[in-house]
Write a structure and sequence with these properties.
The chain is α/β, with parallel strands linked by helices. The protein is built from 16 helices and 11 strands. Strands 4-5-7-9-10-11 form a 6-stranded parallel β-sheet. Helix 2 packs across helix 14, helix 6 runs parallel beside helix 7 and helix 10 crosses helix 11. The structure holds manganese (II) ion. Manganese (II) ion binds next to loops.
Amino acid sequence: MSNLPISADLIAEHNAVRTDALEDDYAALGRKLARTGVDIAAVKARLADFSVAVPSWGAGRGGTRFAKFPIPGEPTNIHEKLADCAVINQLSQMTPRVSPHFPWDKVSDFAGLREEAASLGLGFDAVNSNTFQDQPGQAHSYSTGSLSSTIEATRQQAVEHNIECIEIGRQLGSTDLTVWVGDGTNFPGQQDFVRSLDRYLDAASQVYAALPDDWQMLLEHKMFEPAFYSTVISDWGSSILAAQELGPKAKCLVDLGHHAPNMNIEQIVARLHRFGKLGGFHFNDSKYGDDDLDSGSINPHQLFLVFNELVEAEANPRANEREGGFNPSYMIDQSHNVTDPIESMLSSAEAIAQCFAKAVLVDREALHEAQASNDTMMAFQALRRAYNVDVSPIIAKARAEAGGAIDVLAAYRKSGWRQRKAQERKAVGLGAGIV
Ligand SMILES: [Mn+2]
């Protein structure tokens, strides 16, 4: 049973007055690309296949360590979050999967939740465990860490929680478990670097042992926060070492905000791919640290360079890739502090698709030739030519053909969704946001 949140008539009316202009722009871009031997329809077909997951927690307003400012009509539970995610997917036709987070999204009937999502046109992406905060009634506190805690009972509790997440994920149709731990230290000497990693690896291997055959365990590293002196899985180096020790089903997850400032993230992507260990992405943008700003809002060129490596990797899969070749899981992971989260995710999905499309447009033959002959300027120009193309007509046309809206933000505002939900949903309380 279909239960789509936005009326098909509203989208059709919205598109009707925009179709002529879009066709004009698409045809002009098609002629321009044809002059360089590129078939615009082939690029559009790649975009029609492209998707990125949205996080259930991204549907609510985030916050900072200081405050969260909720908006009327914000979702208050997983059912309302799914409805908002369905709005994003219906308008963008690019976000068909939701990444849930436990225990935040816990319900009594997961089979029912899967059906509910399906009726909204959604499936589930990676399940996320949470051992970075205590829950009411929890037996052992994570104040000493989780998978690397010095207290055995705490480590065991963290292992059992991750295994429970796998079990929930099986019921939801997921095939990935994303593990990020907040474990680390705030003072020199607080923990032994080697022994804490030993404890982490021992506990993580117990989680790994519970993975079904077709599952992946995605290790998300983060340099700092909530621990500000050291973290146990601090960088891509620690991540790949841990993934290699755990086994072939363990992969690295790259969150764009979890690196030291000015890191060459596109090179990290290429390194992880080289060893078949690139498992997934958390897309966001950053100015200073783990800012969790909207994808492409600060440094779209970096996002393009990351996608350039991803498109290159897709054409050249390495050993140890998942069945079907190079296919990392793409997800948005942002904190929407001052915008309507639906609008931010619509805008971010667009920014991500733009960078993917530009990367597809890179003349790889010219790039490889220039690289081989050490023609630096022409190698750079091969990237620059693609980056400079305005690909928005291709994305809008792919979206409209799939049933989405030509101008996603305008259609969303016209729908009056948030105002309607402000009447129906109970208010979200104040308090600190997701940090
Ligand atoms: Mn993340």
